[in-house]
Design brief:
The chain has 178 residues and is mostly helical. The chain contains 6 helices and no strands.
Length: 178
C-alpha cells in the first residue's frame, strides 16, 4: 500500500512519483538535443526581433543578383569605392552564406512540412476511428439495455466539440410596398 494521497502529496520522507517518460518523448528529446547542437554550428544566426523585422523584410526581398552586381560595380569603380557605403568583403561573404544555407533552408522547410503532416496524419487516423466508435456508441445507446454506452456516447459528443447543426431559418421575404 502507498501512503501517497490522490492529490499527489506524499508523506514525509517519501519521494514523489515521477511521471513516466514515453518512447516518443525520449525520441523527441534526443532529436531536440541534436537539433540544438546543429543550430549552434550556424555562424551569425540572428533571432527575429520586432525592432528590425520591417527593415529585414523590406530589404531582403531584393534579388541576390542585385547584391552581386553592386559588389562587382564597387570593386571596379574607384568613385564608388570612395563613398565607402558598401563593404565588398562582407557582401561577398553574405552571398556565400546565402548560397551555402539555401539547401539547409529547403531541407528544414521540407522537414517541418512533413513533421506537421505526420502529426496531422496520426491524429486524423485516431479521430476517424473515434468517429466510428462514436457512431456505434450512439446506435447502441438507443437500446434501453445499453444505458452505460448511451452515457459514454453523451460524453464523446461533449468532447467532440460540435454543437450540432443549427436549424435553418426560413428567410422571410421583405414586405412589398404596394
Amino acid at each position: 500500500m502507498s501512503d501517497t494521497i490522490a492529490s499527489g502529496v506524499t508523506s514525509p520522507g517519501q519521494e514523489p512519483v515521477t511521471p513516466t517518460t514515453t518512447h516518443y518523448q525520449e525520441v523527441a528529446k534526443q532529436f531536440l538535443d541534436a537539433f540544438v547542437a546543429a543550430i549552434a554550428q550556424i555562424p551569425m544566426l540572428e533571432e527575429k526581433h520586432a525592432s528590425t523585422a520591417v527593415f529585414v523584410e523590406t530589404h531582403s526581398r531584393f534579388p541576390n543578383d542585385f547584391v552581386s552586381t553592386v559588389l562587382t560595380s564597387v570593386e571596379k569603380d574607384p568613385q564608388l569605392q570612395v563613398i565607402n557605403k558598401f563593404d565588398v568583403v562582407e557582401a561577398r561573404d553574405t552571398l556565400q552564406y546565402l548560397d551555402a544555407f539555401r539547401s539547409v533552408i529547403d531541407q528544414v522547410e521540407l522537414f517541418l512540412t512533413n513533421l506537421k503532416f505526420s502529426c496531422a496524419t496520426r491524429k486524423a487516423k485516431a479521430v476517424f476511428q473515434g468517429l466510428q466508435v462514436y457512431a456505434v456508441a450512439k446506435g447502441l445507446g438507443r437500446d434501453a439495455s445499453s444505458a452505460s454506452v448511451a452515457s459514454l456516447a453523451k460524453i464523446m459528443k461533449r468532447d467532440l466539440g460540435r454543437p450540432g447543426r443549427p436549424l435553418k431559418k426560413k428567410e422571410v421575404p421583405p414586405p412589398t410596398n404596394q
